[in-house]
Amino acid sequence: MNDKVVEKKRYDKKAQILLKTNSFAQTNIIPLYLNRPYDYYFKLFKNLSKKNKILEIGSGVGQNTNQLLDMSLKVCATDISSTSVKIMNKKFSKYKNFTSKVVDMEHLPFDDHNFDVICMAGCLSYGNNQIVMNEIYKALKPGGIVIIVDSLNNNPIYRFNRYINYLLNKRSKSTLKRIPDINLIDQYIKKFGSGKVKYFGSITWVFPLLKLILSDKSILNLSNWIDLKLNIKKSAFKFVLQLKKINY
Question: Which end of the chain is more exposed for a tag (fewer CB within 10 A), N or C?
């Protein structure tokens, strides 16, 4: 079976459980010491104009959409899972600044140069890297920005752990291969013409051991200090990429 179909069925199944139980609360609470890249990600939206048209790709059941809507930003949230989109429609029915659409990120069904901002959180590996990059580029207005938070695939420890998850049938082979690395980040910056990236969690691999002796807050402080002082890239767990489309 095509990996895209496998992943769609996987997320449809998870969403169907939530739909049946009518349980739409946050389902994946992120530990305090892993939250920093997402805090930075949302910070990049705070000064955006409320008139901007924002396309969120790979929204899932709206785990990150809610914060964008609460900033009064105009968001079109999309996902390949139709059941996930149904859940978002229920969750965010009160928001006038919310629209949704069932979308395959490899085939964005929008006019060229349609959005001021395009954002993604943790979903780059669910599509062909080059196709997704080109689709985002086409849908973005000249001068528009892209904001992405995702996992980095340069650290061999994280790569091994993700391979174990593949063996356990928790992720498909193609998503394993497509997890972004520094090379892909550089390709995005070259394609759009301007970009900056920030790396997080260079010692995340040792967190399970640190939890035996330190509190979550202490781990967070230590991780932040190391990220700031050593500026390690290749061992980072997460990254946040901000692009501006000046090549057109």
Answer: N
